[in-house]
Amino acid sequence: MNAASALGSGDVLAALLVMAIPLIAIGTLIWRQADRTRGLQASIENAAEKAATSSEGVKRIEANVAAMRDELHRDYVRQDALRETENRISKRMDDVEHVVRNTATTIISALSGVEPPPRRRRRAA
After folding, report:
1. Residue 47 has what pLDDT?
2. Is the pLDDT of residue 1 over 50?
3. Neighbour count for residue 47 (Cβ, 10 Å)
4. How many whole angstroms separate alpha carbon 15 and alpha carbon 7?
5. pLDDT of 70-121, one tens digit each?
6. pLDDT digits (tens, 9 = 90+) for 10-59
7. Contact 94, 125 (CB under 8 A)
8. How far apart, in whole angstroms, are the C-alpha atoms of residue 113 and residue 33?
9. Contacts 24+ apart (CB under 8 A), 96-104
């Protein structure tokens, strides 16, 4: 007798099912794992895009902050220069006022024939 003839159709079917069911289960697991892998890969790509967009936004904000800091520094320099100019103008105006007062007193004294009062020393500012 031959081995194939000794097996009945039920035995062949059982042998095929014993081999096919694990293969189907393994195939299903592989298919599900591949699907999860694709989903995770899409999530990673999406997160990478968001990170790149956020990075660009941070770079723009840093550039704007640097520009504002530079502008603020320029404003401080301008204010310091204006204060120095104001101080110089104020000192010169005080000098001019002193000269004008002394000149007027000298002219009036000369016209009236009276000796001008002694000059007072100015205090240093």
Report:
1. 92
2. no
3. 10
4. 10
5. 999 999 999 999 999 999 999 999 999 998 888 888 888 888 877 766 666 5
6. 788 888 888 888 889 999 999 999 999 999 999 999 999 999 889 898 99
7. yes
8. 118
9. 98/122
The CA-atom distances, in angstroms, between 88 and each of 39, 72, 82, 93 are: 73, 24, 10, 9
CA distances from 106 to 32, 35, 98, 102 (A): 110, 106, 12, 6
- Residue 50's alpha-carbon distances to 9, 39, 43, 53, 108, in angstroms, are 60, 17, 11, 5, 86
DSSP notation for the chain = --HHHHS-HHHHHHHHHHHHHHHHHHHHHHHHHHHHHHHHHHHHHHHHHHHHHHHHHHHHHHHHHHHHHHHHHHHHHHHHHHHHHHHHHHHHHHHHHHHHHHHHHHHHHHHHTPPPPPPPPPPP-
Q: How far is CA 44 from CA 5, 38, 57, 58, in A?
A: 57, 10, 20, 21
CB 109 within 8 A of CB 115: yes
Could you tell me the residue ranges of all domains in the chain? Answer: 10-112
Whether pTM exceeds 0.90: no
